[in-house]
């Protein structure tokens, strides 16, 4: 993780050294402009592919985490209980009599991708459907720049609140059992200022 952060910082520093500030402010494809300036057309294509892979990695991580967050919120009662379910069509539910008379292919799929308690798939499907609908709504009503700003403000606000919550728990409940401890490099005392700065810069 520190290597990834350092790579992003050095990349941004390189952008400012190579490209004029006016160019950086007027384009949404800074990496492509940088690649074209330094390495020519081939470089811009390679950097575009690298940025795309980075975006897919971030999308993959966000899909996993956001789905589980909505699932826990539904399970704890903060959202409707349907979002706190894992899988589709539990065999133990009263209304699942039609699932017991499935054909051979359906039964084999159930054995491969689920069980009698969760039904098909070991995934918070309903929570992920909610996230997909919200994402589609944001895309329909917003522009690219607006979405980036909105995500930045919302994301860094939650990061700030999460780190602040850890510090408050340490003060209020110092003897609370903590099964997971953050590494020294990710101490909340260090991350709180970083989250604050990121939030201010985004706003």
From TrEMBL:
What topology does the record note for this protein and the membrane? Multi-pass membrane protein
* Keywords assigned: Membrane, Transmembrane, Transmembrane helix
Recorded hits in Gene3D superfamilies, A to Z, give: Amino acid/polyamine transporter I (1.20.1740.10)
The GO terms describing molecular function are:
L-amino acid transmembrane transporter activity
Principal subcellular localization: membrane
User: Organism's domain of life?
Assistant: Eukaryota
Record's subcellular location: Membrane
**Which residue windows are transmembrane per the record?**
40-59, 118-141, 147-169
InterPro entries named among the record's database cross-references: AA/rel_permease1 (IPR002293), AminoAcid_Transporter (IPR050598)
Cellular component annotations (GO), alphabetically ordered? membrane
PANTHER family for this protein:
AMINO ACID TRANSPORTER, SOBREMESA, ISOFORM B
Q: What is this protein called?
A: Putative B(0,+)-type amino acid transporter 1
Lineage of the source organism? Eukaryota, Fungi, Dikarya, Ascomycota, Pezizomycotina
């Amino acid at each position: 993780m520190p290597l990834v952060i350092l790579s992003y910082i050095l990349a941004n520093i390189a952008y400012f050294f190579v490209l004029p500030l006016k160019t950086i402010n007027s384009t949404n494809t800074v990496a492509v402009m940088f690649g074209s300036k330094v390495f020519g057309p081939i470089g811009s294509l390679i950097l575009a592919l690298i940025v795309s892979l980075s975006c897919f990695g971030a999308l993959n991580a966000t899909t996993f985490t956001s789905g589980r967050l909505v699932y826990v919120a539904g399970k704890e009662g903060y959202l409707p209980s349907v979002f706190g379910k894992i899988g589709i069509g539990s065999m133990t539910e009263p209304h699942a009599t039609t699932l017991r008379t499935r054909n051979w292919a359906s039964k084999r799929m159930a054995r491969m991708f689920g069980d009698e308690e969760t039904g098909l798939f070991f995934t918070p499907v309903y929570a992920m459907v909610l996230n997909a609908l919200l994402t589609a709504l944001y895309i329909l009503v917003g522009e690219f720049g607006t979405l980036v700003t909105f995500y930045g403000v919302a994301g860094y606000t939650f990061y700030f609140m999460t780190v602040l919550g850890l510090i408050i728990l340490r003060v209020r409940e110092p003897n609370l059992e903590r099964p997971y401890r953050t590494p020294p490099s990710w101490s909340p005392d260090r991350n709180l200022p970083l989250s604050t700065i990121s939030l201010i810069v985004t706003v």
